[in-house]
Amino acid sequence: MRLNMIVNGTDVSAEVEPRLLLVHFLRDHLGLTGTHWGCDTSNCGTCVVWMDGLPVKSCTVLAVMAHGREVRTVESLEVDGKLDPVQEGFAHEHGLQCGFCTPGMMMTARWLLDNNPDPSDAEIREAISGQLCRCTGYENIVRSIRWAARKQASAPQEGHDIAPGQVVSSTLQDAGA
Amino acid sequence: MMKLRLAQPEVLIDINDLSELAYISLEGTELRIGAMTRHADLLASEVAAAHYPILREAERVIADPIVRNRGTVGGSLCQADPSEDLSAVFAALQASVVVAGSGGRRVVPIAEFHTGPYTTAVGPGEVLVEVRVPVRSGAGSAYEKLERRVGDWAVAACGAALWLEGGTVSEVGIGLTAVGAPHFRSVEAEDSLRGQVPDESAIAAAAALAARHCNPSSDQRGPEDYKRHLVGELTSRALRRAAARCVGGEA
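^ Those are the sequences you sent over. The predicted structure of the assembly is below.
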């Protein structure tokens, strides 16, 4: 089947099997391997991407169901070498250990902060409640999202002071909140 | 369903673009919920929560926030999983559903909708289009679910709806899920409450009947006697909170 969609702002067109899942289309056809493929049953949430502005689990969306829609993946967070505050927060607060759940966690975090710039810890936990971290690093993930929220609140027009790959140290005070 | 090979359709039709089936509205004495209404939208609906808080309470514990962005009310009902939450909710609310096909539309009482595990009254060439919940005064409702972790199917759950007139129960619905209750309902518990003042002893009697007359199976979520105990406890809690809401005792 022929499908067309916008992925991270770019028009994409491809001929795919009807049974192909969106997560596999992104990874295997487009080479966007930032989105991970985990449980395959809508439980773990590592495959979360945005479709038409809402986070969805891409292991439970057929690629052809995204035809004509706009998809956003974790690769879109970094812009021109500048990290998103959410990515900075995960770096500052050690929000990842093995990193497998990280892309889904960050895409959900970005959506949360876009819709609720000052979430409580309870709201953060609720937002990521459909996602699993088998390293059990939830405390640091919550701190990372809170860090990003503070960073955005203190410098809404800035927020990109870590280069990709840069090693950073962790303190809550770095958020300047 | 397809990944587990429970369903192996030869043809799939994507109905996600049928946005005309995504709505929640109050029409006359009915709350009408379109089949393509996303769980997230029913959770957020003020009109639904104002009339029946059970809807918001159940939606809060259905799957997880990301899944609720995609999953639909109609999809959940038509999947007809024996542990599905809204089946118990709509059983308690004495809802009906509208099924459409090339021959027209028909209204099916929720008690006749589920014909068995994973099977419904929706025939070939038909589609569920709407759920209708009667709105009557004096109502109170609540949902109580125990799950092993966020997003899991219920170990057991109870939805209760009460309608009071002059302090006594004029109508009642008690929905149970995951415990083998016929049509997700406890008719025996409902019958015991009708005409009664919903005090502690009446609630305890109804809860005991609900526990006795369901048919839970022992599985990885727990043994049969544990689930039966849960049904009694969850039914008590749901009825207690529903009754408090009838008299405006709880927001």
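Chain A touches chain B at residues 18, 40-43, 45, 48, 54-57, 60-62, 64-65, 108, 126-127, 129-131 (CB under 8 Å). Residues 138-154 of chain A form the longest helix (17 residues).

Shout if you want it in another format.
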